[in-house]
Amino acid sequence: MEFTKKDLNKTLWVKRVDQEKSRKRYRVDATGKTLGRLAVDIANKLAWKDSAYLSDFWDAWAYVLVENAGKFIVKWNNKLKQKIYYSYSGYKWNLKSITLGELIQKDPTKALWFAVRWMLPKNKLRDSRMKRLKLEVETTTKYDNFKPVNLYK
Length: 153
Description:
The protein has 153 residues and is α/β, with parallel strands linked by helices. It has helices at 5-8, 16-21, 35-47, 77-82, 100-106, 108-119, 126-131; strands spanning 25-29, 63-67, 84-88, 95-99, 133-135, 149-150. The strands form 2 sheets. The chain has a 4-stranded parallel sheet. The chain has a two-stranded antiparallel sheet with strand order 3-4. The longest helix has 13 residues, at 35-47. The two termini are 34 Å apart.
């Protein structure tokens, strides 16, 4: 196909209905994967960075199902002690902190959830993207009717 100046000035516009019909669903097995690299791949699929129809103002992207979400690895042992998660309620003297090692012992899926959340763009769509992230502690067949594609082969 030969492009002319007239063709280059036109914008490819995909309707939202068509985009929602073509939503993709991905399955990821987190066993043995590094926390950071796993979170990058998940965030890229949730934000649909690899799509030709990338749109930054509506949310019509992919779902990601993470199985064995607590079985990721952290390569640096000092990171388990040095990385600190803070939560502040707004009340005086109510700053709470927890290290990555303590968080993994308490709830390992929460550590992956935080990593993915902080890698997504900080805008109005972040919450709706995070709703499409499903974290499962074990292998599940609950989402097999959607026919998810394996992210890693």
